[in-house]
Each structure stands twice: as structure tokens, then as C-alpha cells.
């Protein structure tokens, strides 16, 4: 009986050892499967977000802007079928900013006419341009919990004149962008109440 008991204990011990060895050997496999799933999810999000960006036209909503010194402004924005974007600020500023035709149009409530400036290599126009090779900006995109970030810059070594665009993850919805100007001043814009319309009224883009 004692011999049988010792044999039984030995079998249990061997089973435990074999189980531990199996778990240790399986860990890299499970890790590889997890990494593979993460990569597949990232690739799916990238493709969905690219399609979402390419269909930005006729997107409208509200925005809240926080500039580099902490001033807060609110208003509404529109993107038309030409992928031009108009920001109309609520009182007291009542400023209007429109990006179109390679220019930035600006008018505040004290001015009767728009001022305009030619802008080259602007990351906001780059984001909206349908002909942009958007794929290259997704090479450095990252996922951080429930958001995905895409960085648009014409010089990867320079933070100036860059745009960080933040979308929901896993379903891409525009949530925020952070613009860094040539003086490294940062402006955050948060988007809400987003919806797509059949047509965006032309009146929001009139600059005459």
C-alpha cells in the first residue's frame, strides 16, 4: 500500500512538472497571438480612419478651442464638398476663419472685409486635401487606449507647423486636433456634435 501511495504522489508531481513546462513553453505563443491581434486591430483602424478622412466633406459640428495661453473660444464649423473648412466663433469674438484655395481668410467683428494670407505647407490643408498621400502619416500613428493619434508634419525632426489629429478607437470619429505653429505655440481644438449633411450651405464660405 505504501508503494502504491508513493507511486501516486510521484505521478502527481510529474503531472505538475509537465503542466508547468507546458505553460512556460506556451507563453511566447500566446504572446505572439496577442501581438498579432493588436497589429490586425491597428491595421483595421488605420484603414477605417483613412476612409473616414477621405470622406470628411459635408461634415459639421461644434468646437471648443483652447489657445496657447489658455483662452477658450467656442463656435461651429463646416467642411464642404470641396474640403474647405470654415470656423465661425460665437460671441463675444464672432471671428470667422476659413481655409480654402490655399489661403487662410480671417475676419473679426470689427472688420467689414476679410483679410487673407497665402499658406504653404499647412498641415490642416494637408489633412483636408483629397490628393494628399495620407498613408505616409499613418506610418507613425499610435493607439493609446480608446483613441488613435495621427501626426501630420512636413519635417519629422521639427515640431513646428505640425498637426496632431485624434480620433476615437476602434471606430474612428474626429475628436481633437492640436496645432503647433512656427513659434511652437499650441492650439487645441475639441470637436463635438458631429454629423454629416447632404449639402453644406455656401453662405459659411463666402469671403467677399
* Portion in helices: 25-40%
- Residue windows where pLDDT falls under 50 for at least 5 positions: none
Shape: elongated
- Largest sheet geometry: 11 strands, antiparallel
Structural class designation: alpha+beta
Radius of gyration: 26 Å
Average pLDDT taken over every residue = 86
H/I helix tally = 2
Fraction of residues in β-strands: 25-35%
Distance between the termini: 103 Å
Strand order of the largest sheet: 6-5-4-3-2-1-11-10-9-8-7
Give the H and E element order: HEEEEEEHEEEEE
Number of strands: 11
Summarize the structure.
This protein has helices spanning 2-54, 123-128; strands at residues 59-66, 72-79, 85-89, 96-100, 103-107, 115-118, 142-144, 147-153, 162-168, 174-180, 186-196. With 208 residues, it is α+β, with helices and mostly antiparallel strands.
Describe how the helices and strands are arranged:
Layout: H1 2-54, E1 59-66, E2 72-79, E3 85-89, E4 96-100, E5 103-107, E6 115-118, H2 123-128, E7 142-144, E8 147-153, E9 162-168, E10 174-180, E11 186-196
Antiparallel strand pairs: 1-2, 1-11, 2-3, 3-4, 4-5, 5-6, 7-8, 8-9, 9-10, 10-11
Question: How would you describe the overall organization of this protein?
Answer:
By secondary structure, the protein is of the alpha+beta class. It has 2 helices and 11 strands, in the order H-E-E-E-E-E-E-H-E-E-E-E-E. Strands 6-5-4-3-2-1-11-10-9-8-7 form an 11-stranded antiparallel beta sheet. The longest helix has 53 residues, at 2-54. It is elongated and about 100 Å long. It starts with a helix and ends in a 12-residue tail after the last strand.
